[in-house]
């Protein structure tokens, strides 16, 4: 959730028991009376077993296009970004701005953590300060 062009914007994923679904949709639609605009979409839980969850913590020098470069590289390896939180903050001992990313990735079962890390490290010359990958299983 964030502010974009002076407006609050966000995506929220909600899970609810099937018997409560209709009540939830009705309550959400009633928010329009308070000036809240939203788009509701249903999602399905994928249980194919072709990916495994991996957490990624990354710190690097901030620059325009950093998220695009990281996600393009991940997509090229067949990795899905399941959850992503990003932030920028000043480096502790300098005026440099550091980019921070915490993510949960859906990594193909056939892709090793070493290969994933090697792929991400190809961005290291101008990006990475710290990279940690860890299995969520």
TrEMBL record:
Alphabetical UniProt keywords: Cytoplasm, Repressor, Transcription
Origin superkingdom: Bacteria
GO terms under cellular component: cytoplasm
Annotated source species: Pseudomonas cannabina
Major localisation: cytoplasm
Subcellular location: Cytoplasm
Residue ranges occupied by any ACT domain in the UniProt entry: 55-134
The protein, known as: Glycine cleavage system transcriptional repressor
Protein's GO biological process: regulation of DNA-templated transcription
Signal peptide: none
Species lineage: Bacteria, Pseudomonadati, Pseudomonadota, Gammaproteobacteria, Pseudomonadales
InterPro entries: ACT-like_dom_sf (IPR045865), ACT_dom (IPR002912), GcvR (IPR016867), UPF0237/GcvR_regulator (IPR050990)
PANTHER family cross-referenced by the UniProt entry: UPF0237 PROTEIN MJ1558 (PTHR34875:SF6)
């Amino acid at each position: 959730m964030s502010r974009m062009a002076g407006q609050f914007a966000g995506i929220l994923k909600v899970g609810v028991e099937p018997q409560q679904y209709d009540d939830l949709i009705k309550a959400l639609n009633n928010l329009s009376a308070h000036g809240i605009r939203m788009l509701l979409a249903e999602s399905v839980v994928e249980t194919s077993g072709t990916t495994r969850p991996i957490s990624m913590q990354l710190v690097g020098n901030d620059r325009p296009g950093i998220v695009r470069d990281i996600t393009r590289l991940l997509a090229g390896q067949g990795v899905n970004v399941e959850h992503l939180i990003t932030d920028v903050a000043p480096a502790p001992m300098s005026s440099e701005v550091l980019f921070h990313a915490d993510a949960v990735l859906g990594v193909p079962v056939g892709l090793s953590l070493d290969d994933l890390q090697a792929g991400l490290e190809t961005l290291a010359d101008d990006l990475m300060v710290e990279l940690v990958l860890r299995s969520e299983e």
